What does this fold into?
Amino acid sequence: MVIATGQTPGTIKISGSTPVEMARGLAHYCRTVLRFSFAWEKTGGVQALAAVPSSLPPLAAPITLQKQCAPGQANCYSYYMNVCTETYSSWNWDWARWEKEVDWMALSGINLVLAYTGREYVYRKVYQQLGLNLTSVELAHGGIEAGPAFLAFSRTENWANYDHSTPLGPGHPNWGLPDTGGRTGGPLPDSFVLDQWHLGKRIVARQMELGIGSILPAFQGNVPRDLAARYPSANISVSKPGEKVAAGGVGWLDGLDPLFAKISRMVLQTLVADFGATGFYEADGFFDQSSAPWLSASSASSPHSPSATAAQQKTQMQTQMQTQTQMQMRAGAKTHLLRHLY
It folds into this structure.
């Protein structure tokens, strides 16, 4: 972008190819000329040594700022957020707080960010279309929805109903979370789920106005375990209850099962209908399990367990190799699906 003195005295002209570039140019001028500081809200927010003058100081010469992309890349992204930050830090933000954050993103030149706010309502609608009318309590008990500050647990690990009063074993602390019954804060109030959906739509709309790409939460395979009864022919595994999973086990759908493609399409279509076609979608992987949950060996002992036999260890290692291959195939199928949907 180019920052230059405007034709009208006391003004500055900023040129760029996107609103984010121009916002970044504005931030550069404010920092270097007006001595502003732009920081996260917790670390001071926007600060200025003096009030903004009615007539902006001119520049001795135009300033050109060029974003540094990797060799061979015409365009590149400055990425922000992760699936944990979305819940640990921002679950209780209202629109006023989110608006400040989005403005800070633009002023910082960020043009790609996760947009998970409102995810739970989208998935509830898809489950209902699939014939499941689950209550908030049932969704929490099934590991699908944790409490507001712990949604990362249910979105990526599916242990929304894990009892943290039970030690997790060597290297894992007893978290002792202050939740009712020792659980991870669920069930979610229906009002919270709906409010977050409305808030998420507003966030994405604002980000799109500024040219910030919004990464929406695509389907990754975790499903309510009750879906297995509704679709008995689908390859849905219910993980063994125990370490880091819900009290009754959690459901995971085989990435190569036809139902996986069906649900993926339903989720994407609902996301686009609710938030718009942002062009960016992300599916977080399942972790904190000993092996692939949709394979028969998922309930066997961990290969690192002292009680595991040599045969079990060999089976588990083979299972993990098969899982990696299936995950790669699933990722390729998702890329193909996304390319042809929109």
User: Anything to note?
Assistant: Confidence is low (pLDDT under 50) at residues 164-182, 242-246, 290-308, 327-342. The CA atoms of residues 95 and 202 lie 8 Å apart.
